[in-house]
Write a structure and sequence with these properties.
The protein has about 270 residues and is α/β, with parallel strands linked by helices. Helix content is about 25%, strand content about 30%. It is built from 7 helices and 16 strands. The longest helix has 14 residues.
């Protein structure tokens, strides 16, 4: 029998190997952190970092899960476009306002996000894109348990974000290449490595200048020079690197890189429909 205890274990929020447990709505534990924010008509309180006996909560959360699972609405709040009114607000404040307008509930540790603000407008962008941009360069990311439950978690290796990027590319039927450069021997943690190479077009093998080379999981990138050459510094480890240019098919590379390496890319021109 599954033990439905989402959002209760500190390990669940910080250990990549436990992401599957988040999806499965269960994990085994002796002590837990209860991170459920209780809403009332006239009051709102946050119960964070309180050690409690998890056993009675198993029944409570099973009941809550079954109850809220009966709700359905056509669009995930993460796909809703932002209005621009979020500029200047804290992420916590924005979550509270969104919860008041939609059935979605956000679960997070407050001191993880209390210093994150919308410093610019994200008008006409989906919330999921806004969150990815806000969390870029941090060890935070989000996971959608169901259409009305979003959990902010720590993902030091950005595994969830990379999986989302690759999954989106697959849905859009983009070509995805898998490449491993070097070997993860456990000694290169935190090391910086260089990915370099040349980009050419497929018809006559001509070099391509101005091609965007972008590490999508890190939100950093560069462009090829006049000789079609590029160089990109990355932390050793797994990344998703894309190559794109106007009127050419984007190439997506599901990359693991643990030492300096070379990646040459050929882009195919998109047929023009008259």
């Amino acid at each position: 029998m599954l033990n439905p205890t989402p959002l209760l274990s500190d390990e669940l929020f910080s250990t990549p190997s436990n992401f599957t447990a988040v999806k499965a709505y269960h994990t085994q534990f002796n002590r837990c952190i209860f991170m459920h924010r209780v809403h009332a008509d006239t009051d709102r309180m946050s119960l964070l970092y309180h050690d409690i006996d998890p056993r009675p909560l198993n029944i409570i959360f099973l009941a809550l899960f079954l109850f809220f699972s009966n709700f359905s609405f056509s669009q995930s709040p993460l796909d809703m476009t932002m209005s621009g009114a979020e500029k200047g607000k804290s992420l916590t404040q924005y979550f509270i306002e969104l919860e008041q307008k939609t059935p979605v509930r956000f679960y997070f540790v407050e001191n993880w996000v209390d210093k994150i603000f919308f410093t610019e407008s994200f008008e006409n962008k989906p919330l999921r894109v806004g969150l990815d941009e806000l969390f870029a360069g941090t060890d935070l990311t989000w996971t959608e348990i169901n259409p009305h439950t979003v959990v902010i978690i720590k993902d030091p290796t950005q595994a969830l974000q990379r999986n989302r990027i690759v999954s989106l590319a697959q849905r859009e039927q983009k070509k995805i290449d898998r490449l491993i450069i070097g070997k993860d021997d456990g000694k290169n943690a935190g090391a910086q490595v260089t990915l370099a190479g040349k980009v050419v077009e497929s018809k006559i093998n001509a070099v391509m200048a101005g091609v965007s080379v972008f590490a999508a999981d890190l939100q950093i990138g560069t462009i090829t020079n006049a000789d079609g050459l590029y160089e990109l510094r990355l932390p050793a480890g797994p990344h998703v690197v894309t190559f794109s240019h106007v009127n050419f098919d984007e190439r997506v590379n599901d990359l693991e890189i643990y030492e300096d390496g070379k990646l040459d890319v050929t882009l195919e021109e998109v047929p023009t429909v008259l």
